[in-house]
Amino acid sequence: MCAIYLKQGAELVAMVEQPYDAESVLQQLLADYPGLLAGEEDEREGRDWLLVQREMGVAGEENGANRWSLDHLFIDQDGVPTLVEVKRSSDTRIRREVVGQMLDYAANASAFWNVATIHAAFEKRHTNADAAADALAKVLGPDADHEQFWSKVGEHLAAGRLRLVFVADEIPKELRRIVEFLNEQMQRTEVLALEVRQYVERGGDRLTLVPRLIGATQAAQIAKGTGGVTTRRKLTEADIRAGITASLPGDMGRRLLGLYEFLQSHGRASFGTASVTMWLGEDRDPAKSNPISLSVYRDGGVVLNWRFLFDRRSPDELDRLADLLSAMPALRESIDAARQSGYRAYTTLPAAAILASDEGLRDFERLLLEACRPSSQPTS
């Protein structure tokens, strides 16, 4: 078996390839970490997936009972249904039989599923409608139109615009050839294979996953042209800076860039297709972690993502964050609305409230740092 090496400080750790104990292990990894579906391809960094359901039923006739069960149904942020079937390389069905199986699923799903079926399956997987909306917002962003998203899902389904993904710990050459052929010949449906190799530390508990996407050949991209599955890239640092400068010229733009740099220096950034989400106050120690999530849009908008914080701050700490923000009179009305929603909303922070002066911006930054410090943690 081959190995890869993990460098941590002065230590070089050999990570040895190890087969999965069971197919269900790889299935669970995909359900927990849908980002694996992007493989290692840089151009797919902007793609996020929403898990609709595991073991999604597929009927063989209109209004008929489910005949098959698809391992996973995902939807990407553009509303494209993504059908995923998982096999271990030791399963001989992965060579050819799995292809016919997947085509059965795709043909019948396109014919007999509708957007209401998919939406109901997605909501059923969550405890309530609010939890489902939270999960969707984490993929689409806080300001996305959920109704428009589900409408796009229906349009893609009706047009047969799907993505089919075969997943295994190792993709055999027979399946690779079939996938590449199908992907080059099918204009509306994308056909891919994903290899996810697992490497473990001998005598330790560290684990490394190495995903590799197969089938996205140049010939396939040319064949699909504009009629295939759509893609959107994530924004870059340059996009954010240029957008802010264009949307808020002068001192307001300068201050928003200053806020953006402050957030970068005190937390982590997650770039999306419309905004960059900044996280402050995270810590590996749960007793010290008290996060705040702000999204900065390239058109100059700043949004506080209460929904992202609902299960990551205690009720007392949510109230404390609201109290601190309410200390700025221009924010009080927006924060009161968030309280009334039970902190299940997104609050757009008016530029005039936080960017009106250099002193006001510094006050806002100090407020954020104070809100990240758990109230039970003494000041240093």
Q: What labels describe this entry?
A:
2 domains; 8-stranded mixed β-sheet; alpha+beta; 40% helix; tRNA_endonuc-like_dom_sf; 5-stranded antiparallel β-sheet; single chain; nucleic acid binding; 380 residues
Describe what this molecule looks like in 3D.
The protein has 380 residues and is of the alpha+beta class. It folds into two domains: 3-224, no CATH class; 237-372. 40% of the residues lie in helices and 24% in strands. It contains 14 helices and 13 strands. Strands 1, 2, 3, 4, 5, 6, 7 and 8 form an eight-stranded mixed sheet that branches. Strands 9-10-11-12-13 form a five-stranded antiparallel sheet. A hairpin with a 4-residue loop joins strand 11 and strand 12 (302-305). Helix 6 (173-185) packs parallel to helix 7, helix 11 (315-326) packs antiparallel against helix 12 (332-340) and helix 11 packs antiparallel against helix 14. It starts with a strand and ends in an 8-residue tail after the last helix. The model has no long low-confidence stretch (mean pLDDT 86).
Helix content: 40-55%
- The count of strands amounts to 13
Beginning-to-end CA distance, first to last residue: 50 Å
Low-pLDDT runs of 5+ residues are none
Overall geometry: globular
How many discrete structural domains? 2
Q: What does the largest sheet look like?
A: 8 strands, mixed
Order of helices and strands: EEHEEEHHHHEHEEHHHEEEEHHHEHH
Q: What does the radius of gyration come to?
A: 23 Å
Strand content: 15-25%
The helix count comes to 14
Look at the helices and sheets and give the structural class.
alpha+beta
Instruction: Give the overall average pLDDT.
Output: 86
